[in-house]
Amino acid sequence: MLISMDLNASSLPEDDKDEEEIFGAQVEEEIAHEEHIETAVETMHREREERRQRLKRDFPDEGPKQPMREPVINNTRFYEKNKLPPGWLDCPAAGDCIGYIIPSKVPLGETFNECICPLFEAKVGLVIDLTNTTRYYQPSDWKKQGIKHVKIACTGRDSVPDPESVNTFVYEVLKFYSRRQKESNKYILVHCTQGHNRMGFMIVHFLMRSEPLSVKHAIEAFQNARPPGIYKQDYINALYAFYHERKPEKVFCPNTPEWKRSSDLDLNGEAMSDDEDIVAASHDNQVPTQVLMNDDFLGDAIPWDQQGAMRQICYHSRKLGAGANQFPESHPVSLNRENLQLLRQRYYYATWKADGTRYMMLTYDGCFLIDRNFNFRRVQMRFPVKPTNGRDTHNLTLLDGEMVIDTLPDTQEKQSKMRYIICERWEMLEKEVIEPRNLERQYINQNRNPYYRYDLEPFRVRRKDFWLLSTITKLLQEVIPKQLSHEADGLIFQGWDDPYAPRADQGLLKLKYPKMNSVDFLSEVVDENRQLLYLYERGKKKMMDGYHVDFKNGEDPSELSGKIIECSWDSEEQVFNCMRVRVIRSIKDNITEEVLLEEIGDIVRLPMYADRIRNDTKAHSRKHSGRQR
Question: Residue 262: left if φ>0, alpha if ψ -120 to 50, beta else—which one?
Fold first, then answer.
């Protein structure tokens, strides 16, 4: 036993009896204290009661409190300082099932499945943990019972879960749903700390993406299952903003529950902190750039294994073999004197070659952009189907297009909106994809209470116009340089009756402007690793003395000896950059714009063109005269 000395004690002797009585009282008090050591739970109950009494004295007019359901937790075990989450004891244990989802506060202890499941007479097969700490329980306790545990750490407090975490949550739930149909009927236990804001935010996202609900109805569905629902205004505002819906004026945020208000203050009336109150550094002082680029990152990342499944969807829709991981776009081949003859054999249309970034777009339980690396990112876009009823949207629709940046007329200022141009030329796309969006947007704009805001979408969508070959001169000299609202770097020729062909389409032809054109070289490596470049000009092999190719992707030039490489010119470094290795066996002559116009002048006089041009001219003139470029 440690004995302390009181340095403020009097130097005069005291009465022995008084000293003995004082000492005896101290000994009895210490013995009593040793006989009963207050546990952590008792300490929490005592502090909670003291805090309640303090709040009653400070706020006597609050009225009676609503009775709270006692949590059903056995064999409680504490981690890290034996500290319960603030407000956990008085927070209701769980809510009603939402489909196969059990919304719950964080369970504590080892026998979690026995504690929670009897409330629903259900068996848990998956636990999704949204807390930002690992101190509440050990994930291995779930795994010992054959229950899968998924950790999606979310900060909490005033920070809503980020979009990537939302995508992961929705994917895990959907994956469990599909597996649940094959296995026994198991449920998903979802929890944050108290089981309201973060968890509600995630579940509302899931409902929005799995059922035809508005944000208002999805929030109400969670609120009915787990009262009082989401009680933080920032979370509710973020949901409406994410799905581009207008928040109704009569939507009110629920009041903070009593158990939460009392738990936010300690015994001194100060705000209590928690292990999860870790907020990312603020970036308010950073000024975002206003200049958009067509290769800016758009959308939110999705789980890696979800990408694998969606790649197979793309391959199946394009009727390609499963298992490959190559971008299934249709890309053109360079126009040369040999394939120029295809314009005489089939009925072709022409359009501009947009100087943008190539993306495919897939609608499948949402909308996803697919880049050339075959990576998927989710974007919040809406593609209604005909007839427009405000709910049904496209599903399993795969589009091919280009992302560009439009400029305002007569200025060089960048618009705040990007534009996705669908490159496929079928009229069906205009009627099935573009027109329903335009009709719904017009209907919503005329409504006093629009439920969806197209102006908040990350980019606009339109189908590229295709022009008769007889108008190719106008396209080159007037439309592209004077009327087009984004950059173009050449022409595209597409057979009007040709089907879509993934990968290199030998019937899809491109002519790039000379200043932007890439060059095909025959690369050879000779003695002492000296690189030689050859260019075919008018059918003859010509050595390019004094020029060098830079391999920025780390290719070994010796391994490319004897192969054809496509290169672009870097005017600043005065060097060619290797873009890709070509699969063609020989280099073809590039064709000039002058030769092209001369050839097309003869082609459009052919009977197969003359008849169809006469039938299409009037319709095309009316269509293009009133459309903004």
Answer: alpha
